[in-house]
Design goal:
The chain is of the alpha/beta class. Helices cover 34% and strands 17% of the residues. It has seven helices and eight strands. Strands 1-2-4-3-5-6-7-8 form an eight-stranded mixed beta sheet, sandwiched between helices. Helix 5 links the parallel strand 7 (164-169) and strand 8. Helix 3 (93-107) crosses helix 4 (117-128).
């Protein structure tokens, strides 16, 4: 299962509006936002997890578009893997990436962060020529079956010249040992593929920020800090750019970040 529950360190959503353009999205506006970010969710779609993450990114100095690939197909009847996969197959991947490509240009998006299937969309957009900041968290580079399918990323990742930061758990059960090994070898051959593997962590491990297991929690916090460092590469105003540990501490003390 990917991401549903909001991380405890993420703020409540605010300054949110519906965006209807080439794609459907929720727009999180920061008046002084210096980054324009597209956030691509997993097959569960626009859950409290992604709303919280979009709010966190917006608070740190960005206008964030939380893209909803599943909007045309309605809400899930139940928050189960079976229901999510049934809805997923209504999406036409190639057509959706055409729409994403148009949206990126229309809105001047400089950063894309994608999770699971969203990570595959990030890799596809780079293959098509996107040149902004790119983060793919636990993508599925062996490909996903679809009536309008995309080329599996494993078939072209060796040739990508634009940097993509990839965050993956070594114990990702969706990938399996063979695909994790193949991903490691592929990225070792191509320095543009900036792979970070987290021992003992599985699929969707960013949720482990709230785990009571120290190793899993440490991996998730390190990955979140790394992702934030890629998304916000230049120093933010004093008091804004903080590591995850500081964000959590300040929230526990009732300080708004």
């Amino acid at each position: 299962m990917c991401h549903i529950r909001k991380l405890s360190l993420c703020p409540d959503e605010q300054q949110v509006s519906e965006y209807t353009g080439a794609v459907s999205a929720l727009r999180y506006a920061n008046a002084g936002g210096s980054r324009r970010i597209a956030l691509l969710p997993d097959i569960y779609g626009v859950t409290p997890f992604y709303k919280g993450l979009a709010s966190l990114l917006s608070d740190r100095g960005a206008v964030v578009y939380l893209v909803d690939p599943w909007h045309p197909f309605g809400e899930l009847p139940e928050m189960t893997r079976e229901a999510a996969w049934a809805r997923r197959h209504h999406l036409r991947d190639r057509v959706f990436c055409d729409e994403l490509e148009a949206f990126l240009g229309q809105e001047g998006i400089d950063t894309i962060v994608g999770f699971c299937i969203g990570g595959n969309f990030v890799l596809e957009l780079v293959r098509r020529g996107y040149r902004g900041t790119c983060c793919a968290l636990y993508p599925l580079p062996w490909g996903m079956a679809n009536e309008d399918g995309l080329q599996p990323p494993f078939e072209y990742m060796d040739a990508l010249e634009h940097e993509v930061t990839i965050l993956m758990g070594e114990q990702d059960s969706l990938a399996g040992e063979e695909n994790v090994h193949r991903l490691r070898e592929t990225c070792a051959r191509n320095p543009a593929m900036d792979l970070h593997l987290y021992e003992a962590s599985g699929h969707g491990f960013l949720a482990d920020v709230d785990s009571d297991q120290e190793t899993l929690r440490s991996n998730a916090r390190a990955a979140l800090d790394l992702m934030l460092g890629r998304v916000f590469p230049t120093p933010a105003p004093e008091g804004v750019e903080r590591p995850v540990a500081d964000i959590e501490r300040l929230r526990s003390e009732g300080v708004t970040t």
